[in-house]
Design a protein that fits this description.
The chain is α/β, with parallel strands linked by helices. The chain contains 18 helices and 53 strands. The strands form 14 sheets. An eight-stranded mixed sheet has the order 20-21-23-25-27-29-30-32. A seven-stranded mixed sheet has the order 42-44-43-47-49-48-53, sandwiched between helices. It has a five-stranded mixed sheet with strand order 4-11-10-6-8, with no helix packed on it. Helix 7 links the parallel strand 37 and strand 38. The radius of gyration is 44 Å and the shape is extended. 39% of the residues are buried. The N terminus is likely disordered.
Amino acid sequence: MYLLHRPEHNQVYYRRWQSPILHNHKRLRETLISPVMKKLLIFSAILPVLFMACAEEPLPPVEPPAPTPEEAEIKIDVTSIVIPAEGGSETIRFNSSQKWEAEVKSSQDNSWCTISPKSGAAGDASVTITAKASNDVNSRTAILTIKSGKIKKAINVSQKQKDALTVTSSVFEVDAEGGDISITVKANIEFEYMISDECAGWISFTGTKAMTTHNLSFAIASNDETKSRQGKITIYSGSLQEEITIKQKGKEISYEEVWAKEREILMNFYTATGGDNWTDNTNWGSALPVSEWYGIRTDEDGMVIDICLYSNNLTGTLPEGLSGLERLSQFDIIDNHLTGSIPAELGQLSNITLLYFEKNEFSGSIPPELGNLSHLNYLELANNQLTGSIPPELGRLSELERLSLFNNFLSGSIPPEIGNMSSLAQLYLYGNSLTGSIPAELAELNNLRECVLWGNQLSGVVPEALREHPCWETNWHLILHQSNYGISYEGLEIYAPEFSVKTIDGGNISNEIFAQNKYTVLYHFLDWCGFSEVFTPRLVAIYDMFKDLGLGAFSVTSQSDDAAAEYVKKHRIPWPCTTNQKETGTFINYIDRSPTVAVFDSDGKVVFSSALSDYGEIAAFFTEKLGSPNGTDASYNSTDYSKDGDVRILQKASKGNGIDIILIGDGYSDRLIADGTYDRTMDQAMELFFKAEPYKTHRDMFNVYAVTAVSQNEVYATGTSTAVEGYFGSSMHVGGNDAKAMEYALKAISDDKLNDALIIVMMNSTAFAGTCYMYDPVHSAELDYFGNGTSVAYFPVGVNEEALEQLIRHEAGGHGFAKLADEYAYRNNGAIPYFEVAETEAKEEFGWWKNIDFTNNPSDVKWSGFINDERYSDEGIGVFEGGLTYWMGVYRPTEDSAMNSGIGGYNAPSREAIYYRIHKLAYGQSWEYDRNDFIKYDLDCKTPQTRSVNIVNSSYDLPAPPVITGKTWKERMNDR
């Protein structure tokens, strides 16, 4: 007897036995030599000795005997055969020197085996023995005898027994106090037992007795709960098995005691979650049965089975002791304000089927103990602040149908154990920070219908098994879109749906459009979406550049025909547009967000998708596939550098000391300078800078210079060279050689003025990107900091003026001049780390970051004076969480602004910061700020704010955060 450990079964124990019946065959063979034969053998051995003792005198001659016939001989190698219990035939081959006969005899019933043939002539021969299937629990034997003359050959024939496994009782009932049970097992084979998972904690093996009839002893722990329970023990060997059900009664206690205990637990819950301030707390704490308390449901015994308090203004934390609600089946507290961690003791709620904790503020990690909830069907923990990894223990939830963990701050990889959730139909993990590859085990979820993984940082190739799963066809777009665009195109075969739809102008488009072009864009927009508002004119410009090179396009929107027609007219969209009203499902996989871009080749296969790539890269994609548009030539090299370093004064200040802005172009060859492209670009940049207030009103306080920089090449590619060494990094990040930009700037101004100058580098590219590099001010003991320090802002000219204006306002006017912080946030970034708070606060002494704060107290934030000022009520100024790209721990003044989505103007605190720095630079240290003067100016000049958009949940088309160099401009120049 020995114990086996099977790691694939948690808390399951095995025992194996070997039956003595397996040894019967050996004992049978030992009985084949009879006692008479033994005596004859002994006599034969003694006889030669007797003759030797008598041979002292010679014997008389003996005549040789007459010749006799040759003796028979049988040559055979087989001495035994074994036939399986299910029956069958075996053929024995031999050689006989004479004719032969064969017979088979069994000590049991001879009818179970037969032979053929039973005789034959001399020479090579064979006999086939055939056995019927055995229903005997013992093995059976026979002797096959082949005889020729006086010679016999015996072959032992045996047939294995039919495997047998039985138990004397299949149901045991046990009192709540527990005790021992003995299961009698009769078997003639090795067998094992298995205790099922749900009862492994209260049933344990204690021993076995005997070898043929086995009495297996199990200890049943006491049941301290009032509800009965049952479990299973399976005795099995191969395909044979017997199942025993153990039913244990619940603890018999006074229901009055139970009701009092549960009432106490509920009141602790009430107190801990601010019950007095609940939206509805009817009858809570009263003498009425708890079934009459708002949100509580009980069973026929009066015990609590449901808590349903969604959207009821619960605050505070979940208290200890909730596991005492033994029969709790549903716990719904969605959409409240609960904080703290999720108690691990909830893993003891053995009857729970539904946990709805969505839309609270729970933090900490997901308790692995929740994996013990074997009857759980729905686990909803979405829209909280949970951190850490997804516990692999959740893979034990074999009855779970929906796992909803989206919009938290979960990290680490997706545990492959999720593939063990055999009942899982809906998996929602989007909007976290999960990394690594998509586990192939997800394809083992045969019931999976919805798999939503977007908005994480997953990477690698989608497993082939998942691509072949039935849910892939309707879920691929919900899987591929990652915030890091890390999923590979490798192995993806995604084609356009079959369609034929009417357009808003009365036409029709179908799949034929793909064959008509080398590449075709499907563009989805919404007229109220600020991101569509910015990207649409850019896409129109891109289309105009590449349409003669084989590019086609069509749009789809879920809006009305009238709204779509107005949008098309406003943006002069030249391609067909369908509203997709009657064909709702046709493009559903392509319109999950706005804007969305998908590019198809001539066969209708997706070759570029904003689910897999930043849609800001689409111009570069078409340049690679279709060639350079509008005659741009990567091979062109400048030869005339005579204009390099020339300074052109665009305007001089008429008021104050003059605030310096230096414009430089990068990627402009001698021919683009000669034909006026360079000068037009610089003029355009200046005009766009001064379009927004307060720059518009105070334009007369600025000096603006354009310094000519001749680049060798006109494009950014491997092997090309540009004057300021511009480059494109990941996502929206761009940059160049700041020291070279400063060298060009010093051709326009003296080095004593560079400390407060703004340098703008216009990159000759159609891409949409932008990054500002911010330098510390050169230290001066007498300096009153007011946003000092050199800045170098880089951004491509893009494809249309609207996009360029957005970049200039955000990067140059916001970061570069006013030293404003980003007001947008990514959910995936979670809470701002403490060290970034410290680093940010360290720059505040320079007068930076006046539009964000780290307190949410309206009385203490930097812009508190605007919050209750009715003159600014139309701007919705308050305290909004999210900024510096972080979702939590940073606060901004308005829901949206130029420093958030980039759409519209600056909010009031930002305008105040710009106004303050303009006047300090124009009039020097002696100028003193008067808030009343600012408000008078501001109320006269401020324009209505553009409609706000939601803060972004993922990686949208926003410029990269500014780079804080931590150096002065002089230190950067010295690094050359």
